[in-house]
Recover the amino acids of this structure.
């Protein structure tokens, strides 16, 4: 079963993409959507570029394995189920688990460089940009990076100032005008979720 719609979702780091996706998944029938996260295609940490203070910068286009990412996405779109290794960032003692991404009628591609990479961008049928105030992105980064990546407050704020915001301004904001739909994040996504899930459900029914 090849995909019928490929939806790209992007926004700044900490913009609420994961929260948006979780709400969207809950709003449609099981098996309708598969999530393809570009975050699982970061190069090994020893291949990451470091800044002038020796800190790995994961907010550069060069930090990702673009060829493997685009190749796997094409396989998924063609109907092939993927089995890929989860990326664990700086958790050196954690054994990465394998993630199975099944083929589905709708594939959602998410990540900060979803629109930036031409080889990914050209595969998208619908492009959604999550537009979030900077103060909310900082708050989300602090919570996420402390919980999921083991960074302390000082580390999170350093990365946000020196890596996240420069990348956001240089690589992400310029892609905003490519979006078919800009979703403002002021605390909830209810209206946007209703519109998008309705579109997905109508498409799914038409394909039956």
């Amino acid at each position: 079963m090849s995909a019928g719609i490929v939806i790209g979702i992007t926004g700044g780091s900490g913009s609420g993409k994961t929260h948006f996706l979780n709400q969207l998944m809950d709003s449609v029938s099981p098996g309708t959507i598969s999530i393809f996260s570009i975050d699982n295609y970061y190069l090994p940490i020893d291949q990451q570029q470091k800044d002038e203070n020796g800190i790995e910068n994961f907010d550069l286009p060069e930090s990702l394995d673009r060829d493997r990412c685009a190749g796997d996405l094409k396989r998924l779109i063609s109907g092939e189920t993927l089995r890929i290794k989860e990326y664990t960032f700086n958790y050196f003692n954690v054994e990465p688990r394998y993630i199975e991404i099944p083929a589905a009628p709708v594939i959602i591609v998410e990540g900060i460089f979803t629109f930036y990479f031409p080889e990914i961008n050209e595969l998208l049928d619908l492009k959604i940009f999550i537009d979030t105030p900077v103060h909310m992105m900082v708050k989300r980064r602090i919570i996420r990076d402390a919980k999921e990546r083991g960074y302390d407050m000082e580390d999170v704020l350093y990365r946000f100032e020196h890596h996240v915001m420069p990348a956001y301004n240089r690589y992400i904001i310029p892609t905003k005008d490519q979006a078919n739909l800009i979703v403002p994040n002021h605390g909830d996504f209810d209206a946007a979720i209703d519109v998008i899930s309705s579109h997905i459900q109508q498409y799914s029914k038409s394909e039956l």
